[in-house]
Design goal:
Radius of gyration: 23 Å
CATH architecture: Up-down Bundle
Oligomer: single chain
Number of helices: 5
CATH topology: Butyryl-CoA Dehydrogenase, subunit A, domain 3
Number of strands: 5
Order of helices and strands: HEEEEHHEHH
Helix content: 55-70%
């Protein structure tokens, strides 16, 4: 989702009358004519079209939630030593990370599909000589969203379906090193 958010190719407007292509991204606009391409960074947030403002905000929120999900999930993994003595808390951390991944994926999937709807409407209202095309960022965003959803679902399912008596590898090593006897 980070790659899709930073990409310039969210949409492409091809004007046959001016013989130029305009690539619109969330952060900058690039114009390509004959052999030269120039890009302009969008500095003012308030001067942007509302569709780009919303998409920018939601994609940034999705990236933040994904980053938070990574941190929370790492704390809840069985292979880490963090909170080894609190199995329920560790299980809850992994579950929370999975839910955060799924929320992040849903946000990105929703806003990308919504922005596609805006482009389709612009295409319908465009002059018959001009055309709009989907950029590669849409496909990157959709794939990233689906991977985030699937990863979050696996993490959530795994932590919900695990047995309560399972010990983390660190706890097993600790028990074996301490000479604990099992009857």
């Amino acid at each position: 989702m980070v790659a899709a958010t930073c990409m310039v190719e969210w949409s492409t407007f091809v004007s046959n009358s001016a013989l130029e292509e305009i690539y619109e991204g969330l952060w900058e606009t690039c114009r390509s004519s004959s052999s030269r391409m120039t890009c302009e960074t969008r500095d003012s947030f308030l001067e942007l079209p509302w569709g780009i403002q919303v998409t920018r905000a939601v994609m940034t929120t999705s990236i933040f939630l994904s980053s938070l999900a990574v941190l929370v999930s790492i704390c809840g993994m069985k292979c880490t030593r963090f909170m080894d003595d609190r199995d329920q808390t560790k299980r809850f951390m992994a579950l929370s990370g999975g839910v955060l991944f799924m929320i992040s994926g849903l946000l990105a999937l929703f806003v990308t599909s919504w922005y596609v709807g805006i482009l389709i409407e612009a295409y319908r209202n465009a002059h018959h000589l001009d055309r709009y095309e989907f950029g590669n960022a849409f496909f990157v965003s959709w794939v990233g969203s689906i991977l985030s959803l699937v990863g979050g679902a696996f993490l959530t399912y795994r932590r919900c379906s695990g047995t309560r008596s399972s010990m983390s590898p660190a706890m097993i090593r600790q028990s074996a090193a301490g000479g604990a006897e099992y009857v």
